[in-house]
Sequence to fold (246 residues):
Amino acid sequence: MVKVVAGNWKMHHGPLQTAGFFDRFRPEVEEGSVRIAFFPPDVSLRSSRTCARVQADFGVQNIHWERAGAFTGEISAEMAKEAGASLVLVGHSERRHVFGETDVDVGCKVRAAARAGLVPVVCVGELLEERKAGKLDAVLRRQVAAFAGSLADCRDYMVAYEPVWAIGTGETATPEDASAAHAIVRSALGALGRCPVLYGGSVNPANARALMSAPDVDGVLVGGASLDPEVFARIVEAGGALAGAV
Ligand code: PGA
Fold:
């Protein structure tokens, strides 16, 4: 299966920096053997789409669940789609833990993505305390149960397992940990589990290949290491090297 390598830029790279990123990224990547995706800030979506000139999908990092209304600072799934997004991150750990997004919100946003025809990349993952307390299985199942019903209406979707303790910390799950968690996610999804399940959390060029080689790991969602074009290109290359591998 072709691996997915997705970059989540978070609140980095405005429109001008975005153009510069792609000028350096383009010559570094060999296209075709990896499904590449970018999640730039909303204000850089247009610049990404016009400047990239590489085969990639583009998405937004968040949506509101309503179509329109008095929700200052928010954008709807329909607006994201109209602006050229085909993907949307839902329930990223920073949305959950910094902005207080709940499991219920995540379910509503997946439903909105389905309504607008966006492909949701729904993020799940446990806190370090939860892992230490032996609650990994229960937490992942609870998080998945909150949106699984809405996934059924999506034409296409992905799930990203991102242990909170590994995001932006330099501490990565081992390939074995990632595999075990992905198996739980797939089991919790049941019949809906035939989708790409990505790993995220301190992915870098040195660990990307081992993580993507692990059973049940279909790709990676990369934060910090996606901001530098040469570094991100090395991660894409690691995914490409696995294309066709059994
Ligand atoms: P990181 O972020 O790669 O910087 O740990 C991953 C993410 O938050 O998606």
